[in-house]
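Lab notebook page, bench 4
Experiment: in silico fold of construct C2
Operator: M.H.
Input chain length: 158 residues
Purpose: comparison with the prior construct
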Amino acid sequence: MQDEILAEVDPRGPRRVLALGMLLTLGALVLYLAFTQPPAHLGWQVFLIAMGLGALGMAYKLQVATTRCLYLTREHIADSDGRVLARIEDVEAVSRGAFAMKPSNGFTIKLKNPAPRAWQPGLWWRLGRRVAVGGVTPGAQARPMADIISVMIAQRDA
């Protein structure tokens, strides 16, 4: 069976709630500050309003993005909406060590060919030849996914 799910990353849980809470609190506090204690210069007030609205917008984007799950099959890594993050045949290496440049509780994949930029806050991002999974994801689900990808690469290259 080709569409067999080998691993799943589901970001629902306390880390998601904490991240949303922090962004919502930041946005509300900055907007509160902008309107109750306006700076002397109008430019700074506009800046504070933009930052507060930006934080609230990011909270919304994070909330929407983290309703999705990531699935690893023998062919690719995709989210629950069907968007393919990376094809296994295009994966060159996986990094998940303590000193690797990666998101919290996640891993980074290096691709053979560049892919279009994409970003789902708190879940994954893709920039050029790099795909990173992590953020509000549980480490207990991301670690096995990275290990399975590493084994699949080793089997493919052997």
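Observations: The beta strands are 7-9, 70-72, 76-79, 84-87, 91-95, 107-120, 124-133. The two ends are 22 Å apart (CA to CA).
Next step: discuss at group meeting.
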